[in-house]
Amino acid sequence: MNTQPIGFIDSGVGGLTVVKEARRQLPNENIIFLGDQARLPYGPRPAAQVRAFTWQMVNFLLRQHIKMLVVACNTATGAALSDLKAKLSIPVVGVIVPGARAAIRATHTRHVGVIATVGTVRSDAYAQAMHQKATDIQVTSLAAPKLVPLVESNEMHSAVAKRVVAETLRPLQHTDIDTLVMGCTHYPLLKPLIQNVMGDDVTLIDSGVQTVSEVSMLLDYFGIAAAPGQTSNAQFYTTGAAKLFNVIASDWLGLAVAAKHVDITDEPQTVVPKLPTDTIVVASKNPGKVKEIAAMFATEGVTVKSLADYPELPDVAETGTTFEENARLKADGYARMLELPVLADDSGLMVDALGGQPGVFSARYAGAGHNDAANNAKLIAELAEVPDAKRTAKFVSTLVFAKPNQPERDLVVSGTVSGRIVGLPQGHDGFGYDPYFYVPALGKTLAELSPTEKNAISHRGAALRKLDQKWRAWYQEDES
Ligand SMILES: O=c1nc[nH]c2c1ncn2[C@H]1C[C@H](O)[C@@H](COP(=O)(O)OP(=O)(O)OP(=O)(O)O)O1
Ligand SMILES: [Mg+2]
């Protein structure tokens, strides 16, 4: 059983017709949808550009750890599907072949109409997909560039929409076409208008419905379906304005949609190659830290080693005056010794009432031969006279990723979390000062959280999320 989400991509809201069907056929599955509305429409764009944009969407979704990709856009399917399939290790499903298959099944006159975007028609993908299976099918394709804008502007119920649909479909009327493929995932939103113009004798094929049936089959084939009865959720992202997206999506899905806006223009425009190594060394002797960092890489298929795996190495002295300096010393120092990429964390507690102390001295606050208990005892003693309201503090984590012998290329990120130091310890999880670090928003100390819960709000979690966005590209960079 696999609870990772299925990713759906489209140039806009059209892919929601596929999502709607997925929620109907696969209610146990978690779903993540991304619509690239900022760059809509895809239909008229050159195929190479559609392919680049599609990879940017895909790379964004891969970081959300999707288990399967559905290209819920005909234009992107035509331009990028074979490339995606060749380069990704997760199953990839496009909308064209399932739609073509359904059309062959439905037609009696063996004459099938296809309405689609300019890009899809130009790619001839539907005709090719049908002819691959049945050479006798006659396919008449028609570009319908005016339909996507109608849907994206939420005009699909207007008189204008009715007129545009009628005009667009005119060349297909009074032919012996008995089956019409809605070859763009936006079109099912106009289905009543299309059916009305074509008449009830013409079967409309909704590629999305067919696609989800294939997704369902593949989930079983690969053994990656979600468990029955789990409460699933759907997350929505748009590169455009969330407001209009939410109106259309909520209406169409019958569900309160609150999409998040994302910018994907910095995402790589092709596959990010597999890492040259599957091992990362975390240069820390602190098992608490290593556990939190390893948790973050768990879904990545990367093995995280720590200094415990290299007991013979000499210590790197933390002689810096800032977290960044110390993290660099550790990362660069151990990367040189190990001749491997190394990730180091330098972190600490900064208490306002103590002028930011213990700061970089957090690990040796109680002096040499320090341990957590002694450090905590000293902290509480120092704050004995300080009233609750003045016990505000923050944790800071600075992460430095270093490649061997290239200190000038270090990748540096930081994160913080704010809270208050309590007088009595609470909780047994975490490490270091966690039992005394109270987070008001949660009503708990950090030691009362699971590793995942702590990562969701902690300084280290925040830094790791920044790292997550950057390290693959950094890792691949040439040494020039
Ligand atoms: O999430 C945290 N929860 C509780 N305490 C924490 C946390 N993050 C840092 N801290 C404290 C522990 C240590 O007293 C100091 C870090 O010192 P720092 O030198 O970075 O780490 P460390 O000596 O424990 O291990 P190492 O240098 O081998 O990575 O701040
Ligand atoms: Mg240390």
Secondary structure elements and pairings:
Blueprint: E1 6-10, H1 16-25, E2 31-35, H2 47-62, E3 68-71, H3 74-87, E4 92-94, H4 96-106, E5 111-116, H5 118-123, H6 125-133, E6 138-143, H7 147-152, H8 159-169, E7 179-183, H9 191-198, E8 203-206, H10 207-221, E9 234-238, H11 242-253, E10 260-261, E11 279-282, H12 287-297, E12 303-306, H13 323-338, E13 342-351, H14 372-382, E14 392-402, E15 411-421, E16 437-439, E17 444-445, H15 451-457, H16 459-476
Parallel strand pairs: 1-2, 1-3, 2-9, 3-4, 5-6, 5-7, 7-8, 9-10, 11-12, 11-13
Antiparallel strand pairs: 13-14, 14-15, 15-16, 16-17
2'-deoxyinosine 5'-triphosphate is lined by residues 284-286, 289, 318, 345-349, 362-363, 375, 395, 430-434, 446, 458, 460.
InterPro entries: Asp/Glu/hydantoin_racemase, Asp/Glu_race, Asp/Glu_racemase_AS_2, dITP/XTP_pyrophosphatase, Glu_race, ITPase-like_fam, RdgB/HAM1
Keywords: Cell shape, Cell wall biogenesis/degradation, Hydrolase, Isomerase, Magnesium, Metal-binding, Nucleotide metabolism, Nucleotide-binding, Peptidoglycan synthesis
Protein name: Multifunctional fusion protein
